[in-house]
């Protein structure tokens, strides 16, 4: 499931390529035909991400809410203009100790993509876009536009230059302004939405009353928005916090530090396109981490491997149907 940084990157690309454009909408799959008909011919006026959900406004107060869920993905084709707030990251290595390390050549990840200039996760092989800081261009120079529909496309949004296909979302629905406000009201604070200090107070006030294990609290989108399996494991390890500790038993200052660390990591994720959670990396190690997931996390996906700090084997267990990775020594 894409975590919060991915949805923010996708929303920023929609803002760059679709906002202020009249959009043709269709549902090739047929499951969203009525909703697509309401969007067709309207102008997209704004788009925002809140946690793992994206909300796009069209003229006449018509809104589209999309939650990608476990299997959803946006595929883009045509002319893709890079969001300068993302593309500008080409010269930076993040907002931790890696800041300022020069990029002599693009770093490709396991999918063969330069995540600094990609649209955002989930980045799949079928997403072929060329994005750069200074240019725009066709994703596939000799391909017809718009591209043929491939597979089960729930919703296609099309401008004169750019195509976005939505597949497999958990939620894709039309909402009016009151329904949008109600949907957002159900979500916990997001560091990139509103005042982060107010968000911190909201998170602490709710989490500090929870009898639920903090490892589950962090995954509750009604308590805090955008955290998924990867960030959950990494935040808890960075805090040296046992994931089974009830939220109400976690010291308030430690809850505040969890929030502040989420602020930091989310910003790095949006900037780099990767869930980078390790600090103090050398330039060489940072390049390796940008290219390979196994080199960018403390405990996530490292079950049975020695903890990078103490050498104890990292364990994995099921927690509310999701895999929870943690170090039983560092997080005792």
From TrEMBL:
SUPFAM superfamilies: Glucocorticoid receptor-like (DNA-binding domain), N-terminal domain of MutM-like DNA repair proteins, S13-like H2TH domain. Its EC number is 4.2.99.18. It is an enzyme of class 4 (lyase). Residues 2-94 form the Formamidopyrimidine-DNA glycosylase catalytic domain. InterPro entries: FPG_cat, FPG_N, H2TH_FPG, Ribosomal_uS13-like_H2TH, Znf_DNA_glyclase/AP_lyase, Znf_FPG/IleRS. Residues 298-332 form the FPG-type domain. GO terms for biological process: base-excision repair. Its cofactor is Zn(2+). Keywords: DNA damage, DNA repair, DNA-binding, Glycosidase, Hydrolase, Lyase, Metal-binding, Multifunctional enzyme, Zinc, Zinc-finger. Pfam families: Fapy_DNA_glyco, H2TH, zf-FPG_IleRS. Transmembrane segments: none annotated. GO terms for molecular function: class I DNA-(apurinic or apyrimidinic site) endonuclease activity; damaged DNA binding; oxidized pyrimidine nucleobase lesion DNA N-glycosylase activity; zinc ion binding. Signal peptide: none annotated. PANTHER family: ENDONUCLEASE 8 (PTHR42697:SF1). Belongs to the FPG family. This is DNA-(apurinic or apyrimidinic site) lyase. The lineage of its organism: Bacteria, Bacillati, Actinomycetota, Actinomycetes, Micrococcales.
């Amino acid at each position: 499931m894409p975590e919060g940084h991915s949805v923010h990157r996708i929303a920023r690309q929609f803002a760059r390529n679709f906002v202020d454009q009249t959009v043709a909408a269709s549902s090739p799959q047929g499951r969203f035909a009525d909703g697509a008909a309401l969007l067709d011919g309207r102008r997209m006026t704004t788009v925002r991400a809140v946690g793992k959900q994206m909300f796009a406004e069209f003229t006449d107060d018509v809104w589209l809410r999309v939650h990608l869920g476990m299997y959803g993905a946006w595929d883009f084709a045509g002319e893709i203009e890079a969001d300068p707030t993302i593309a500008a990251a080409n010269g930076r290595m993040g907002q931790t100790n890696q800041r300022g390390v020069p990029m002599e050549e693009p770093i490709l990840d396991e999918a063969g993509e330069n995540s600094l200039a990609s649209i955002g996760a989930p980045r799949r092989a079928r997403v072929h876009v060329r994005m750069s800081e200074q240019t725009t261009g066709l994703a596939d120079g000799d391909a017809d536009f718009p591209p043929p529909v491939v597979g089960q496309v729930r919703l296609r949004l099309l401008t004169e230059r750019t195509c976005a296909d939505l597949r497999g979302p958990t939620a894709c629905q039309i909402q009016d302004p009151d329904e949008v406000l109600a949907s957002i009201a159900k979500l916990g604070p997001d560091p990139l939405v509103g005042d982060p200090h107010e968000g911190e107070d909201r998170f602490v006030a709710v989490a500090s009353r929870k009898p639920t294990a903090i490892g589950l609290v962090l995954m509750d989108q009604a308590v805090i928005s955008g955290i998924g399996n990867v960030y959950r494991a990494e935040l808890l390890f960075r805090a040296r916090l046992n994931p089974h500790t009830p939220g109400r038993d976690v010291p308030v200052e430690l809850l505040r530090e969890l929030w502040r660390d989420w602020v930091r990591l989310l910003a790095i994720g949006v900037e780099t396109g990767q869930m980078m959670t390790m600090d103090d990396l050398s330039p060489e190690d940072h390049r390796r981490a940008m290219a390979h997931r196994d080199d960018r996390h403390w405990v996530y996906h490292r079950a049975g491997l020695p903890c990078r700090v103490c050498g104890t084997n990292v364990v994995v267990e099921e927690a509310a149907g999701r895999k929870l990775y943690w170090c039983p020594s560092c997080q005792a």
